[in-house]
TrEMBL record:
Pfam family, one: PGI
Organism: Microvirga makkahensis
InterPro entries: G6P_Isomerase, G6P_Isomerase_C, Phosphoglucose_isomerase_CS, SIS_dom_sf, SIS_PGI_1, SIS_PGI_2
HAMAP family: G6P_isomerase
Source taxonomy: Bacteria, Pseudomonadati, Pseudomonadota, Alphaproteobacteria, Hyphomicrobiales
Gene (UniProt): pgi
Functional note: Catalyzes the reversible isomerization of glucose-6-phosphate to fructose-6-phosphate.
Protein name: Glucose-6-phosphate isomerase
Amino acid sequence: MPQEQRRHLQSNLVERGRAAARTGIRALFDADPDRFRAFTTALEDLTLDYSKTALSVDDRAALLAFARACRLEEKRDAMFAGERINVTERRSVLHVALRGRISDRYAADGIPVGEDVERVLAAMSDFATRIRNGTLTSSAGHMFTDVVNIGIGGSDLGPAMATLALAPYHDGPRVHFVSNVDGAHIADTLKGLNPSTTLFVVASKTFTTVETMTNAATARRFIVDALGEEAVRDHFCAVSTALDKVREFGIDENRTFGFWDWVGGRYSIWSAIGLPVMIAIGAPHFRSLLAGARSMDLHFRHAPLEENLPVILGLVGWWHRVALGYPSRAVIPYDQRLSRLPAYLQQLDMESNGKNIGLDGNPTATVTGPIVWGEPGTNGQHAFFQLLHQGTDPVPVEFLVAAQSHEPELQEHHDLLIANCLAQSEALVKGRTCEEAREQLLAAGKTPEEAAAIAPHRQFSGDRPSITLCYRKLDPNTLGKLIALYEHRVFVEAQLFGINAFDQWGVELGKELAVGLLPVVRGEAPVERSGVLTRGLARTIARLQ
Ligand code: F6P
């Protein structure tokens, strides 16, 4: 789209955003009390309510027109067709193929990938099943009781989040995750483990990431010291695209599960990176996770834009970020088992859309990806919700809630959970005027003077936006749909920002500097070797060592 047309549509939407902020959300409900109906869309049981945003019917139409002008549908189709849309790395972006069927005929750059995907899935299933039923044992012939995944970023956050989310389906060995290069992480994890019954999964797309390689070397020593060098064969497996490097580490080929360069790290949970999840919940449940994601893919590909969950979620995200200028969004799952979802989405969203250079190589015309943060409800209510209700910066909130829990015997808990979720999204819009606060105080027996003094502190502006995603129950299929929804939402927003969501050059400089600083930290090179920005701290740390 010519830059000029893009700018024109954008500035029109920014104008609309200003007007919408003045109108507010309550006024929209006053004008149409049945607004929920017009501002809800669903795929099967997964329902997205975006009625509590300041979007009018006309604003939504303008956003949809902007999406079409950004050639969203064409770009989506290019991704599904396996074109090299990751232009800076010249790669296809085909994580959707990992949850497709062979009949979906996905191809990366013209080369079919379905059979390769199926082959790796079958190998993973066989391996996971044998670990789970004890036919694949430790070096001393014991059944594995514990599995430790060693990986970081996309090789950790997805499987860690999903393993916790699907705890009710967990009937395999205990699964642990070690990611941080801080030795405390692996030390605390290994402390309770028996080397004779522990299996390590070394997960790294590149098999060069320093954190993972350092932790893997420590894990190797843990096994060798207790069981001898030969035990490494039985106690390690690997997941990577760099099969030669895995071999160098000494991990057997038939215990190595590959994936491909058209799978980005933060989009890799569906690949062999999901192995620890499969070991925890079993292959059939893992297949159900993939099937849920595939339903979302089909929906994203074929549903009209106005009913399309990832499109609507992306448009609402762009509206809040660009048209209304809100710098962050909070993800608040009223679902304790989704407590790692905000961290997972931080990588998915911020590593994808935290960019300031557009696809044309020039600075982007607008702000781009928001800061994503969050914690589960109801815990957040007793921590940071004060700021959400009365702070100076509105923060759009994304609530997630299940209609059914996995603990029918604890229904009272679930009723309270749902009531709190609904109450918070209502309170954010409703607010309370100073006059209402004063009347409440008088009714509670305060003197008129006291009521007048305290009332201003108890008023809430209201009109604060939120969306709510609700679903029947957090099962593997639903989790698959949810993750794929967020993946595609990131894609949609990237098209509206005009950026490449699939590279991450911004993480490189820090890694390079760390390599240069290591000799200084180890005391092998003089502190002067570090630059003026670091010298002072390096000296202070050395003095304290
Ligand atoms: O440093 C960022 C990053 O490259 C992420 O994109 C990736 O998920 C993570 O590091 C881990 O990379 P790998 O799987 O290659 O170890």
